[in-house]
Amino acid sequence: MLYPLKFKPIYKDKIWGGDKIKALKKSDDVSDKCGESWELSGVQGDITVVSEGPLKGNNIQELIEIYMGDLVGDKVYEKFGVEFPLLIKIIDANDDLSVQVHPDDEFATKIHNAYGKTESWYILEAEKGSKLISGFNKDITQQEFLEKLENNKLLETVNQQPVNAGDVYYIPAGRIHALGKGIMLVEIQQTSDITYRIFDYNRKGDRELHIDMAKEVLDYSKTEKNTVEFDRFPDNSNKIIKNKFFTINFLPVMNPVLKNYAKTDSFIVYYCVNGEIIINSKGKEYPLKKGEIILIPAEIPEIKILPKKYSELLEIYIDSE
After folding, report:
1. Could you tell me which residues come within 8 angstroms of residue 164 by beta carbon, excluding any fewer than 6 positions away?
2. Helices (H), the chain
């Protein structure tokens, strides 16, 4: 019998990691150099495991093998098989991350036999003066890009955007991007761990760069708009992003909310941005607090969300229409 599933995060230390994830999780399992918490992952070698209930100890891939479309939705299973199609992680940038780009599905399939990486960021915290990079600030050529990189002037060509908590950024495959120091966010992305590093601020340690790959997949056109605008009506699913890769809604909860997913044909993931809620499913209660996620299997047609106080959720699924 399937039920709302919680997972044990996979913590990853990074040279640019900090202590914000440790504070968020209130756990001694997290180090002071934790850069990423993989909340839900089907990436081979890093597949998340159920943390509670009768299915505790099973990983997400094992469950898809058993429950198939009942867990993820028939159309999702038809397309992705036993691979869970999204990777959801929390990132703490205690230092500037490298400037990078990800390939699209076509290039990634050809070179790596894998999916590409389109992603979206919801900013949880941003220290005063924090910035991120998203796209070029003008149309440039590949030759100009290579010249600027060679002459240590790449940052002259990119959008360096001030950041605030609650902002959302959409980073399609091919867009040059980087997180700046002082930002913690939730990243929702395709199941892929392919990154081409372009520039690493000339830091010591000689981390590998991937210029030959990056130059082939970069979108050299100007990025006109960076942040994603969306409504914030209470007790409603406010659309942030809807595309073939993922749908993300912002759901602020002030009162009990009944959600019916009978026609959605997808799993539903909730990430709790703020507050604390109870999910009532088939008469049983499942708590969810700030910094946690829960997966509602596709076969569960209806749930009730009961806020303990004003809460904010990200509602994430795949729309196969």
Report:
1. 123, 126
2. 20-25, 60-67, 69-72, 74-80, 105-112, 142-150, 211-217
Over its C-alpha atoms, the chain yields an Rg (Å, rounded) of 20
Torsion of CA 27, 31, 34, 38, to 10 degrees: -40
Model confidence pLDDT, tens digit, residues 75-114: 999 999 999 999 999 999 999 999 999 999 999 999 999 8
Structural domains of the chain sorted by starting position, each given as residue range(s) with its CATH number in brackets: 7-217 (2.60.120.10), 238-317 (2.60.120.10)
pLDDT tens profile 15-47: 999 999 999 999 988 999 999 999 999 999 999
| Cα 48 to Cα 51: distance, rounded to the nearest angstrom | 9
CA–CA separation, 89 and 11 (whole Å): 10
Helix (H) or strand (E) holding 304: strand 302-307
Among candidate residues 77, 25, 273, 46, the one with its CA nearest the CA of residue 168? 273
Mean pLDDT of 282-305: 97
Whole-angstrom Cα distance, residue 248 to residue 251? 10
d(Cα 276, Cα 287) in Å, to the nearest integer?
Answer: 7
> Which residues does the annotation mark as catalytic?
197
Measured CA angle at 221 (ends 129, 145), to 5 deg: 80
Q: Give the model confidence (pLDDT) of 131-186 as tens digits.
A: 999 999 999 999 999 999 999 999 999 999 999 999 999 999 999 999 999 999 99
Q: Which amino acid is at 80?
A: F
The sign of the dihedral angle between the CA atoms of 48, 319, 190, 304 is negative
Kindly list the strands in the beta sheet with 168-171, ordered across the sheet, starting from the edge strand earlier in the chain: 10-18, 34-40, 86-93, 183-190, 119-126, 168-171
Tokens read off for 33:
């150099």
Q: What per-residue confidence (pLDDT) applies to 205?
A: 67
Query: Which residue in this structure is represented by tokens 């149309």?
Result: 139
